[in-house]
Structure prediction request, 669 residues.
Amino acid sequence: MLEKINFPDDLKKLNILEKQKLAEDIRKYILEIVSENGGHLASNLGVVELTIALHSVFNFKSDKIVWDVGHQTYVHKILTGRKEALKTLRQLNGIAGFPKTNESEYDFFNTGHSSTSISAALGMARARDLKNGNYSVIAVIGDGAMTGGMALEALNDVGYSKTKMTIILNDNEMSISPNIGGLNMLLSKLRTKKMYTRSNIIMKKRIGEIPVIGKPIVKIVQTIKRSIKQLIIPKMFFEDIGFTYLGPVDGHNIEELQSILTLSKQIDNPVLIHVLTKKGKGYEIAEKNPDKFHATGPFDIETGKSKKEKGKDYSKVFGDKLVELAKKNEKIVAITASMKDGTGLTAFSKEFPDRFFDIGIAEQHALGLAAGMAIDGMIPVVPIYSSFYQRAYDQVIHDIALQNLPVIMCVDRAGVVGADGETHQGILDMAFFRLIPNLVILAPKDFQELEDMLAFAVDLNKPVVIRYPRGGEDKEPFEKHEKIQEGKAEILKEGKDVSIVTIGKMVARGMKFAEKLKENHIEAEVINVRFLKPLDEETIKKSIEKTKHVITIEDGTIINGLGTAIKELIIDNHMEEITIQAYAYPDKFIQHGSVEELEKIYHLDEDFIVKDIQKHISSEINEEDKQEEKTNENEDNKEKQEQKVENVKKSKRKDKKHKKMKVGEMKHK
Ligand SMILES: Cc1ncc(C[n+]2csc(CCOP(=O)(O)OP(=O)(O)O)c2C)c(N)n1
Prediction:
């Protein structure tokens, strides 16, 4: 069936049985691709029928759809002209793992971060109304994403506005891990309600079609239904805030889905359709382990086993160390915004269930909560991925830094993360955190340094940011680990020709570059700054005064990171004779691809940097040598000249004396 389908018009020609067959084919196809390329598996398997039904009922040449997070759009991509291209999923220059407006006219809004869809869809619906347009606008949002503040803010606005639009709540009872929170409690009550079936929808439609008295009857029926619902469910939350609530409906029954979607088209107010789906549907291994298969690397379809065995990574090192520290210090608490496993907090949650808080996909609340706990004596540790920390910027400034509260903000997945692309690259955190007064910002060079920094942060009693990358160490662990002291850098290698000033993951690379440079007779001094803030200006100044050349390497944006900090230091100290070369990511959004490919493209790879340094440093050293030679030559010439003058003077003096003598002699004579 899949062979026949390229665009939604092909789909519209199929009957229900054929669509069911298509759903099977799509599942197999997605499974094959994700098992090869990696990606978000379970969420996509869960929305196959829903996506088929949406493309059957709506016409997305004019209607619009916004997918929340957007990680569940593989089916949508298959049905909108990207079936073949999906084989390049998440690869450099291939199909993105999230919706991209520049990839297809069927993608109406870029997503990647959670809980944005309702705001965007309401914006589109309001724009439509202002332009007197006549098309449907739909937001598809998961029960996990619905816990995000932005989604709740938007619900509040939509319900009150009475704008015609449809929210599809894709409820699989899971965020990445099982979903939590009061909203989830409400949904679980709604889930137990009798499912909407086509027959009661048809009945509703038929009553509605009876002229004049029809509509009032629907109203009466609705009121009766509502009061019955109110009996079972204390408060019909969605209806009370202004929505027509339809559902729950079986999210794997294409026929029922099509009926309920068709019904929703006829309602002029905001509609919320509650769709029940199973995460991982159709692939038993994922159905049983939906969290593991939420996002996965390449794996074997038969066994579900990862093709690449996952080694120890920074998240795990962080999590294990936190358990160790928490055993000794009962003030330590951990907060996660729905990313317990990803951020390495699983062990902590088991060991200290009372000191562990999963608060939903709610990064802003996570930091606000941490501030409150810190002001009352706790030491909250909040690991969040770098790109999701963007959500909580004001909470870091207003609630934490301003009050100088001892919250430990662990920035996981810092730097380029690879296949998830633009929305997930963690290259902005150093730049945006560096602006904030009172923050102490660190980045470890290896696992042990992360452990040391965490222990240091627990004792510091200040707001601390510790950033570390996705995955493991870049090379063999370092042997040298000086004690962490606030604002103190460590010199890992001494040298006289150039200072390599670097931080975090890039320190290992800096050392490699230094070895390569040595082969070319360039002696590099390598400084692990450890603290982006406060920066160890003394150590850096001393080094660059000696070498006169500095290069900075960091896995963040070129703007306002380590490179900028060193440039400021040079200018503020009037060190005009110093040359600086800064290696970092450009002022751009970085696309998807492997980390290695992206590093190559953006010139952070060994090949490029070593050659580039050699080019600069060698030419500068040569230039200096020439200058020196010239100066020496000039000095030689000057000396010779002076010698000549001196000689002339001497001979003149001799002459004079001689003459005098002669005169004297004569006189004498
Ligand atoms: C702001 C933000 N925080 C965290 C994430 C990571 N994340 C991606 S999907 C997801 C769970 C989404 O759950 P749900 O909306 O229920 O969708 P499902 O995968 O269950 O279909 C999370 C936490 C994110 N994308 N954005």
